[in-house]
Amino acid sequence: MPTNQPTSSKIADHLSSWASEDKDTVVDIFGGVGGNAIAFALSGRWARVIAVERDADTLACAQHNADVYGVADWITWVHADCFDFLAQQKQQQQQQQQQQQQQQQQEQGQDGEGNGNGAATRASSSATSTFLPESLALQPDKTVIFASPPWGGVNYGEQDVFDLSTMQPYNLATLHAACWQYDHVLYLPRTSDIRQIAKLVPDGWDKIDVTQYCIHGASKAMVAYLPAKLPKRKPRGGHQVASA
Question: What are the Low complexity biased-composition ranges (predicted)?
Answer without folding.
Answer: 97-109
